[in-house]
């Protein structure tokens, strides 16, 4: 499945376009940048540049990307905005245990200028001081009553149900858990309700009114073909385009390889160990670029492969039929937006946690005994959930990998200068994985007799040694070849000398 990734969408919305159009360029100009980025994606995919760049990424980094995405998914599934709400914000430790009711929440405010003159103003009508803090953030701190939130416990029950059904190998276990939690949350006037004024999730009354419509007709008239190409002379647009390109490249490529790695554990050999390639990857890369182009036509930020696709693979998806079914489901959902939008985050959050757990299996293939692979892999894994970005995790892992390899390479060159090692051996040991098959280790010098001796079959040599001391009786049947240990002639059609 393809959709807008949260990190790219946030950059598009808050950095490029800005709050109410206060960013670097306008919304229409940003869509034009997305359109061009999509065509660049298609070009580098068709020419093989993208596949070649993937082959240059160390295998340990690619495997760590799958594990990092798993932790990223689990982290999202545990938060309040997109999950069960077990984890919440803390001003001292960033994250801590959550799950508190609305009356025990302290919401955060983002103030650009904290000076008293900017925050505190005087109301000219009442002559009273008032604080200009702007709208509150969706993040909050819990002031007591942690783990008292009913919606959190309903999500945990859904997680337990999914895991239990998966242990019994029930098909569609994740979907059953989501529907179980959703249907209970739709029942009004109880502690875990998602709809209605009494919901612990803000906006319950508005959601209930929208839910009652059931069916809606999609309308994209305000965003379709809304692009504007008059800003390509501005450096701000090129900065946005290049940022879109590298963020989307790293996110999409890392996600695709992670999905392929999951299949590789179930279909051994699906991913080439030397090149990191997988079957029909060219088509997958091109579809990614085509989706970006089509998305820009409809007014969307850059689209990319969704990491939630792992849930489909976990349930048995292996071919393009799975993608077609997903597309059909999305098409139908366009007309049932009120129902789809009413699925609570604490129903889908458990699925993210379970899929994240399944993706950790890729980490067993990393050589943790080799520090040059273990440290970059660990940095990749940790950076993704901590920075809320797959791209930043891949960048951090690749940079740390290059630092370690270049540092060791320089030390090895010093050893060559001091005569302690051979240059060809040093180059081979520090060669990237993608090129090691093209380099050959230096063969030590051997004398002609040693070369000949290495070509002798030990079993054949032992046989010849036995023949030298015996006469052979041969009657034309290889299976009846006999030796006379006493040197006498055995009855036969002919006697063959051992030198023949």
Describe the structure.
By secondary structure, this protein is mostly helical. Helices cover 52% and strands 7% of the residues. The chain contains 19 helices and eleven strands. It has helices at residues 6-17, 27-46, 49-56, 59-78, 116-119, 150-167, 173-185, 204-211, 235-266, 281-297, 309-314, 320-333, 337-340, 345-359, 371-387, 390-417, 423-429, 448-454, 458-468, and strands at 2-4, 87-90, 94-97, 105-107, 120-122, 129-131, 140-142, 303-305, 471-474, 482-484, 494-496. The strands form five sheets. A three-stranded antiparallel beta sheet has the order 10-9-11, with no helix packed on it. Strands 1-8 form a two-stranded antiparallel ribbon. A hairpin with a 7-residue loop joins strand 9 (471-474) and strand 10. The longest helix is centred in the middle third of the chain and has 32 residues, at 235-266. The protein is globular.
